[in-house]
Amino acid sequence: YPNNIVENNAVASGTHFGYWYCMVRTSDGQSFAIYRNICPYRQIFDRFVNNSVHSVGRFGVRIFLEYSPTVAGSRSADTPYQAVFDELIA
Q: Please, what is the end-to-end C-alpha distance for the chain in angstroms?
């Protein structure tokens, strides 16, 4: 899920993607019972800072399906939130 700290990492020599986020609409697996109201595709990025990616086959950063972050990260209509990728070198 996007609400993580990702900083000071380097990715190289992948066949497809460097950083890949699969944003699903609801929690799944064992998390579903506990986090039933969490919407991963609406969660904010905590920090994505000073990361690099090179020599990958397709995309340096791939956000799959849909990503529509909001301030509260909920399903209901909420204030949009801008995701920021600081100091990404690709």
A: 22
Task: Number of helices (H) and strands (E) in the chain: give both, helices first.
Answer: 1, 6
Domain that holds residue 13: 1-90
Q: How many domains does the chain have?
A: 1
Is residue 28 classed exposed, middle or buried when 0-12, 13-18 and 19+ CB atoms within 10 A define those classes?
Answer: exposed
User: Distance between CA 13 and CA 30 in Å, rounded?
Assistant: 32
Instruction: Give per-residue pLDDT as tens, 18-73.
Output: 999 988 888 888 888 888 888 889 998 889 999 999 999 999 999 998 899 998 88
